[in-house]
Amino acid sequence: QSVLTQPPSVSAAPGQRVTISCSGSTSNIGNNYVSWYQQVPGTPPKLLIYANDERPSGIPDRFSGSKSGTSATLVITGLQTGDGADYYCAAWESNHRVGLFGGGTTLTVL
Amino acid sequence: QVQLVESGGGLVKPGGSLRLSCAASGFSLSDHYMTWIRQAPGRGLEWVSYINEDADSIYYADSVRGRFTISKDNAKKFLFLQMSSLTRDDTADYYCVRGAPGTYTGMDVWGQGTTVTVSS
Q1: Closest CA–CA distance from residue B65 to any residue of chain A (Å)
Q2: What is the 3-state secondary structure of chain A?
């Protein structure tokens, strides 16, 4: 069981908005940046969000991130069928000096 | 072109050793921290190890500490992961990943991965 908790799955229709949560604790999300990754099965993950809410170049603004206290949220608006993938949050764990990933959330675009 | 290419994966018996390599191109290893991330078949991502720009800060997941060693050669632009005392739980795709400065887990360039299978 992952220290960072994500819902196993979410679903929504094309064009709609979906949120994916990531819950942790003070020593990880609370005191460190959160990142988000998208992984299409069979391919390496891709960085979507870093430093809580920053998008790398090339990532559309349909993807946004936020953090509040010990939780973080990824929001995807204007869903497209190509957004169907697994999504992972990540954060540093200060107490043990290790990186953490959430268990992953499978997004199904209906 | 910024690129990471892993090699060295393969089939190894339990208790055996393997050395993974990652060739970096298009950027300097002395400007970025690097990590190894793995993914067991059908499972999620697992952070394995971290090495900073100057190789003076190195961290490991509890699951591999004492068995795996991360290192790099900045001049030759290679990252390594020496793995020993391998168990079936180490079976996974191993990704070499570049870190974005100022973060510990903002990793912006991923290799295609190399597969390690531990089996008798």
Answers
A1: 11
A2: CCCEECCCEEEECCCCCEEEEEECCHHHHHCCCEEEEEECCCCCCEEEEECCCECCCCCCCCEEEEEECCEEEEEECCCCHHHCEEEEEEEEECCCCEEEEECCEEEEEC
